[in-house]
Amino acid sequence: MNELKFIAERLLTQINNASTLQELETIRVYSLGKQGEISLLMKTLGSLTPEERKERGAQLNAVRDQITASLEAKKEILEASQLQERLEKEKIDITLPTRPQALGTIHPISQAMFEMISIFKNMGFSVAEGPDIEDDFYNFTALNIPQEHPARQDHDTFYLPPLEAGKERRVLRTHTSPVQIRTMLNKKPPLRIIAPGRVYRSDYDATHTPTFHQIEGLYVAEGVHMGHLKACLQTFCEKMFNQPQLPLRFRPGYFPFTEPSAEIDIACYRKDGQLIVGPGEDWLEILGCGMIHPKVLENCGIDSTKYQGFAFGMGIERVAMLKYGIPDLRSFYEADLRWLRHYGFSPFEALMEGASE
After folding, report:
1. Does residue 102 sit within a domain?
2. Are residues 56 and 152 in the same domain?
3. Whole domain around residue 337: which residue ranges?
4. Would residue 218 count as lying in a domain?
């Protein structure tokens, strides 16, 4: 027994002092391998009497189990240490600054929207938002759009299945006007809001895409008239294009939700193949507007004999194309990094412009 105790203590000391997995494997083979020290002692049991074999066998099994458990425990420790050492060598410092050429830029659409919101907020408008998926009521019916209107047709509008059988189909909003309806239904006049956001129509060419951005405005109060609308849009266009006294032309138009309605042209001219906003011999349509139709006010629970209002709407991409000299609408959505680096804006410039407004 003293001999086995000495062997066990010696092997346990060697296992404890092992510093590598290879060294530990050598100790395992030396002690428990086919020709190992413990294995050779087990082979001597056949020469003992049954009583001696029983006692000696139990002692050897106890030593073997003790050595095996110690080897497994030490192996876990060495493996964990080895993994930690590898992780330390292979770790990447993600706090390092990015390369200068990898700095991102503000997309022209975001920049244009940022500037437009800033101008209207300085005129007292607040920003309102609504869902992209709308009900027929908010997108068409409440806006006095008749059932036979082309905007309701499948070839012009994206429809979604109804939530329940027998219900009306849902629609991807074709304008941000539903935000105006929701605002008039949930708040009492006076109201002065703008509704920027993404809209969807089934169209695609150099000047149209299936998804684009609009910003619409709404002002409802007592005594509102066309002069207020003209002054508001004149101020916006002059600020947006940095053109004091920019000539505007109001032409009669038709929209189901406004009466009277108008389309606004801005003065422009061509130079070196580019269209430039400013006093010149040409005109370019930029937005639609008008006095809110009494039926729309009544649909929203507003007394049209007491309150009047005006509304306007324009495409953000169209304004960005004019201001930044971008010729093709489709390039806004092609994710071309070269295009983004050329037309994009520095985040710092955007912050400075916002602070100066």
Report:
1. no
2. no
3. 108-356
4. yes
At 102, is the pLDDT very low, low, confident or very high (cuts 50, 70, 90)? Answer: low
269 and 144 co-located in one domain:
yes
- What distance in Å separates the CA atoms of residue 267 and residue 146, rounded to the nearest whole number? 34
The pLDDT score that the predictor gives to residue 100 is: 62
| Residue 231 in tokens | 């002054």
Statement to judge: residues 207 and 249 lie in one domain: yes
Same domain? For 124 and 64 the reply is: no
Res 214: pLDDT:
94
- Mean pLDDT of all residues in 317-329: 86
Q: Does residue 298 form part of some domain?
A: yes
CATH number at residue 162: 3.30.930.10
- Pairing type for strands 258-271 and 282-292 reads antiparallel
Is residue 99 assigned to a domain?
Answer: no
C-alpha–C-alpha distance, residues 101 and 114, integer Å: 24
Please report, as a single letter, which amino acid is at residue 302. Answer: I
For the whole model, what pTM was predicted? 0.67
Asked if 70 and 179 sit in the same domain, the reply is no
Q: Which amino acid is at 88?
A: E
The most distant pair of C-alpha atoms in the chain lies apart, rounded to whole Å, by 122
Q: Specify burial of residue 98 (Cβ count, 10 A radius: 0-12, 13-18, 19+).
A: exposed
Q: Considering its fold, how many domains does the chain have in total?
A: 2
| Structure tokens belonging to residue 87 | 């992780």
Amino acid present at 31 = S
- pLDDT tens digits along 130-185: 999 999 899 999 998 888 777 777 667 888 888 777 778 889 999 999 999 999 99
Instruction: Give me the count of residues in the chain.
Output: 357
Please count the other Cβ atoms lying within 10 Å of the Cβ belonging to residue 244. 7
Gyration radius (Cα) of the chain, Å: 39
* Residue 207 near residue 190 (C-beta atoms within 8 A): no
How is residue 281 annotated by DSSP? S
pLDDT at 354: 47
Tokens at residue 195, please? 């509704």
User: What one-letter code names the amino acid at 281?
Assistant: E
